[in-house]
Amino acid sequence: MVLIGVALIIIGFALRFNPLVVVTVSGLVTGLIAGLPLKQLITQFGEAFTTNRYMSILIITLPVIGLLERSGLQEQAKHLVSKIKAATAGKILTFYLLIREIAAALGLNSLGGHPQTVRPLIAPMAEGAAEAKYGDVPEEDREEIRAQAAAADNIGLFFGEDIFVAVGAILLMKGFFDQNGIKADPISMALWGLPTAIFVFIVHSIRLRLFDRKLDRKLGKNGSKDVKK
């Protein structure tokens, strides 16, 4: 019966209700069905918020990023990249993928991210490289460049953080093994993520190279090669 909470989440998301309301109601319903007193449920909500209140610090960065964008951060990023003749959208995203993966492996997960890095810096730099090479870039291709920038961030973080010994996934596996009487070294488990991270970097670098070729085929002949001024 306690799994009714999961069904409520699925239904709520499917009907596009407010996610915060859906999760809160699901938690309350699950706790009540499990026989927990209402006072204890509310106490647990408060303790969870207090324990994870540092997560709300990210909200503070949003106005700062908005002010930077209003002051021309994206335009400056495009202008900077347009001066590098050898730069392409794929090369810039490959370089960012490498930085993101190494940073995540060292536990620096907040170094990148969609709102604070991809939107104001990485995506505009990739667009600027495409404009410098092809001139005016159609909106459809701009959207694809932005999607590739977001994907590079996701992939770099997802596979890079598994190398960091204190990441939640490693600690979860460590706890599971301990509960079942299996000895497991967190450092060894983290190192097992290294080959996967390297392989993923190679594969996605190839994909970004193919993306560059796709832009060449589509925009190389019809697009102007003069730098957009």
Can you tag this structure with a few keywords?
single chain, 229 residues, mainly alpha, globular, disordered C terminus
Task: Please provide a written account of the structure.
- This protein has 229 residues and is mainly α.
- Helices cover 74% and strands 0% of the residues.
- Helix 6 (89-105) packs antiparallel against helix 7 and helix 7 crosses helix 8 (139-160).
- Residues 223-229 have low confidence and may be disordered.
In helices, the fraction of residues equals over 70%
Distance between the termini: 64 Å
- Mean model confidence by pLDDT: 84
Instruction: Return Rg in Å.
Output: 23 Å
Q: Pairing-aware structural class of the strands and helices?
A: mainly alpha
User: What is the N-to-C succession of helices and strands?
Assistant: HHHHHHHHHHH
Biggest pleated-sheet summary: none
Q: Note the beta-strand portion.
A: under 5%
Low-confidence sequence ranges: 223-229
Using DSSP, what is the number of strands?
0
Query: How would you describe the shape?
Result: globular
Q: What kind of oligomer do you see?
A: single chain
Number of DSSP helical runs: 11
What's the structural blueprint in terms of helices and strands?
Layout: H1 4-14, H2 19-33, H3 38-51, H4 57-70, H5 73-82, H6 89-105, H7 114-134, H8 139-160, H9 168-179, H10 186-191, H11 193-219
Helix pairs in contact: 1-2, 5-7, 6-7, 6-8, 6-11, 7-8, 8-11
Provide a brief overview of the structure.
By secondary structure, the protein is mainly alpha-helical. It has helices at 4-14, 19-33, 38-51, 57-70, 73-82, 89-105, 114-134, 139-160, 168-179, 186-191, 193-219.
